[in-house]
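Q: Here's a chain of 104 amino acids. Please give me its 3D structure as tokens.
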Amino acid sequence: MAGDVKTTSDDLDGGWRYFVWDAPEGAPPVTFSLSAEDGGHDHDHGNPDLYLRFGAPPTQDSYDARSVNLGPDDSVTVDDPRPGRYYVGLLAVEAYEEISVEVE
């Protein structure tokens, strides 16, 4: 994933899906967000939770930020990203499909 990138994810079996974003030196604030790919209703797409961690994949017990809203509309903002690799984790609280992951 890079700045202004969008990808789509599905997880019908439960568990984690991971993505990475490499922050350059002097990167501006960045928001990682989830949304239903087709703009549909929350219950149509399931319920992934969004976790973020610098330097290593997040877990439920070890993360830098998370958003655990009901449905697919989650976001996390890093106001002053440090240079290096950020790991974005989607945890399937309920199976989900057609969820967009955006970095902007």
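Q: Can you summarize the key feature?
A: The longest strand covers residues 84-94.
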